[in-house]
User: Fold this.
Amino acid sequence: MILMSILPALLAGLLFQSPASAAAQDSVVVTGSYQPVPLNETDRAVTLLPITPKTVLLYNSVTDLFKLDSSLDLQQRAPNDVQGDLSIRGGTFGQTLVLLNGMRLNDSQSGHHDLDIPVPIEAIQQVEVLQGSGSNQYGSDAVGGVVNVVTRHPDGLEADLRSALGSFGTNQEALTVGAGTAKYSELLSASRDFSTGFIQDRDYRNLSLSSNTMLTDPLGPGSILLALRDSPFGANQFYGDYDSWERTKEWFAAAHQNIFDNTEVDFAYKRHTDLFVLFREDPQIYTNRHADETYEGSARRTDDLPFGAKLHYGTEIDADSIESNNLGYHQRHREAVFVDYDLRVFKRYSLSVGLRDDIYSGLRNQLSPNVSGAAWLNQHFKLRAAVSRAFRLPTYTDLYYSDPTTLGNPNLKPETAWNYEGGLDWHANSTLQGSLTVFNRHDSNIIDYLQTHPNAPFMAMNVQRIVFTGVEASAQYALAAHHRLKATYTFLHGDKAPDPGTVSRYVFNYPTHSAVASWEGDLPFGLIARTRIGALQRFQQGPYAVWDASIASTKGRFRPFLQLTNLTNTSYQDLPNIAQPGRAIVGGVNVKLGKVL
Amino acid sequence: MLPAIILALVLADVRNCACDVTKPETMESTNCGLCREAEKQPLERGVFFLKDANPSKPNRLLALPRKHTAGPHFLYDLSDADRVELFNAAIAKGKELWGDQWGVAYNGVERRTQCHAHIHIGKLVPNAETGQDYMVINNVADIFVPPDGSGFWIHSVNGKIHEHPGAQVTEFILER
Assistant:
């Protein structure tokens, strides 16, 4: 019935809208290059997933953005940012580096916490995705790709209060207050998301708080981001057929300062705690407590060279430690130096040659070279290619975890990979674009948890070599003003299957085919809506499709919204034996306490 | 006068153009002036010329396509045939007026003051080409319009076209 109501309005909206604007051409990305560049000037495969104060009511959580592109394989244990893994190009979840404003969120205890993004979705401006290796720029973990969550600054004076109710006892509140000028701004955001759970012991209570301050001083622009996330949740089926319970907390602080035009310094601190109870009603039987801390500092400089070239160079220092009743106490540190020569000629040709050396505890090192380039063949076609090497250090769980069913392995070696890719971008005009990328990644020493016979525990091991070959295709059409149609498809082939008699926990859960079709646009009467259908087939598993849709008002002080997920009530699992919710609806209202646009 | 012109160029930015011929109220804006001029032209005319309205540029002409495109009227959004027609017409007019000294300049979207696509035609200032920062273009159809909306200028050297892309303000290479 809802769809029957939306469809005529959608068609009317499309028919009576003015021609599309070319605003997409102004999109600037900061991921995958050392300086911000327009999206169509990148010489790597980069995807931009924007969100604005106007469209935020169409999304329940930042993970909804990850569902908009088939190259992102979101493997959720529970929806709405409770817990999930993110994989790109067949990499395991730990092989995707998650950044917040360019600073690392990846967790040294376990990659399962990498998506514990501490800022509410109301504080986010866009998510940038670098498909393929990024270790030359970001160091460890950037093997399959990099996801950079970029926060926003307020647009003048704003104050919003959102409240919603929905299926499975969902109860959400969010408050965003911001004010600013061109030189100073402050955005405070708080959100709370509660659910009694779609099945027993899958309740959750997410809380996120953030403060984003921007200040331009005589040195240049600077910013301070403070954020907190607290997520207690029922973990039924997460790590076996147990009625488990878990609570993760994350404290994040980051400071950025430009020093005149050519130098930037950053510092970040992250503390993450994880309390895991195997049997919720009997915590004394098995409980794990982990607390890890990470410090990160970096300094980067860019110098102009002859012929329009730039030289980027700098250093980065990371230190992390963990204290855990299961993993013990450990600490390690990493120092890196990097240099990159970037040549851009005539707005038509680009070449980037870089090298990064990460030296970590024990004076071992990892070299991460990168060569990438692009050339516009004519007005409409840009050819690009890249070769790079990436690595990932094992997490503390990979190294030291121990329980009756799972064992870490202190002898694990770092994972390494060589990534080769070539692509063709098609720009018919500013309303119609397409992209095709073919990639090939040679993984060595990839870490998986293997069970070699039915009664043995899963043990972390370096799997020898796997070669992934794939294709990423996308097309985007700005049909009319504020109407955007997008279709993406990803194919992936791995050259190995699990050895007979061996059970793999993570490596062989990659999608062989994945497609996403989405639309977002304005409707009459001040409404905005979006819908997406994602279809996916994992290695040696059957296909499934999930359909989501949202609609919201963008006019007036009181703006109702409706979010529908899994409209077809598909029964599916992103991770083996972890059920996902069926059809669900969340409805609420956003109150504009500040200016009304 | 020159500081005023420079200030106008520095402050100009047509990325959020809203000129829409189907909505007359949107055409009243100052930066839709050339769109209104285009509407005065016969529909069948592909390219038309205007004398630069700025009194400080008495020797300048503008070449404009009759067609409108969306938003900031990127040259990039014209069809290949329309773009070639525009360049051919502008170059022919430049040759007619200034012989081998012709120059054609397109200001980038961040520094244009008018939404409707237009290129400046004039006589090159002496020694406009000072370095090797140009591409040699054999065919008008191969003139590269940067997809990011930045500007470029072209001129003739020994029968070949030299293209200088990348800057936002390019019309300064033409005599006033």
